[in-house]
Design brief:
The complex is a heterodimer of chains A (105) and B (119).
Chain A lengths: L3 E4 L2 E3 L6 E7 L7 E6 L6 E5 L3 E2 L7 E6 L2 E6 L8 E7 L5 E2 L3 E4 L1
Parallel strand pairs in A: 2-11
Antiparallel strand pairs in A: 1-3, 3-8, 4-5, 4-9, 5-6, 7-8, 9-10, 9-11
Chain B lengths: L2 E5 L2 E3 L5 E8 L8 E6 L5 E7 L6 E3 L7 E6 L4 E6 L8 E8 L6 E4 L3 E5 L2
Parallel strand pairs in B: 2-11
Antiparallel strand pairs in B: 1-3, 3-8, 4-5, 4-9, 5-6, 7-8, 9-10, 9-11
Chain lengths: 105, 119
């Protein structure tokens, strides 16, 4: 089973600052890595697929990078509505999620 | 507009059974793989099960293998999750999710249905 490890667990930043979230895979997932945003009481929202492709309707301040085992989600300039838990997920071998990074603004 | 509406959650005793349903609309249901993802209270997202567009190939997390069965009815645009031998640790909000395509992530999700396993 491929394990995804996200860091940090919590990120506390101010509006306008840059957020950098990390996801590390226990073995290569090629570029089969996605990022989701999840707010309490809401459905998770796909942000990034295939490591770097923004999903439909996702603002340009969200970007993804990386390949094989190391991936990054960057939020270039935080907005108050970006407060949420962010998960990475691999689709290379079965499906697994990271444990999440909580972003507090 | 893609819509996924889960139903069937509720309170069940340990060892009991429950069947979740997910009604899909706004897309050609039979051409996409589907899955279930859950979130236990205070925990993160956990993939539970998935199946291909025809329903012939199914996948399960080790934590539910042998107890849960995923299925679909393409004529009714519905996804199901039959849950047997339920345990306290199965307590969670269960989300129905649509794949974006072969080997692509879940691009649309339902609002979830809560399953509570307790005596």
């Amino acid at each position: 089973e491929i394990v995804l490890t996200q860091s940090p667990a919590t990120l506390s930043l101010s509006p306008g600052e840059r957020a950098t979230l990390s996801c590390r895979a226990s073995q290569s997932v090629s570029n089969y890595l996605a990022w989701y945003q999840h707010k309490p009481g809401q459905a998770p929202r796909l942000l990034i697929s295939n490591a770097s492709n923004r999903a439909t309707g996702i603002p340009g301040r969200f970007s993804g990078s990386g390949s094989r085992t190391d991936f990054t989600l960057t939020i270039s300039s935080l907005e108050p509505e970006d407060s949420a838990v962010y998960y990475c997920q691999q689709r290379s071998s079965s499906w697994t999620f990271g444990q999440g990074t909580k972003v507090e603004i | 507009e893609v819509q996924l509406l889960e139903s069937g959650g509720g309170l069940v005793q340990p060892g009991g059974s429950l069947r979740l349903s997910c009604a899909a609309s706004g897309f050609t249901f039979s051409t996409y793989g589907m899955g279930w993802v859950r979130q236990a209270p205070g925990k993160g997202l956990e993939w539970v099960s998935a199946l291909n567009r025809g329903g012939e190939t199914t996948y399960y997390a080790d934590s539910v293998k042998g107890r849960f069965t995923i299925s679909r009815d393409n004529s009714q645009n519905k996804l199901f999750l039959q849950m047997n031998s339920l345990r306290a640790e199965d307590t969670a909000t269960y989300y129905c999710a649509k794949e974006g395509g072969h080997s692509l992530p879940f691009d649309h999700w339902g609002q979830g249905t809560l399953v509570t396993v307790s005596s």
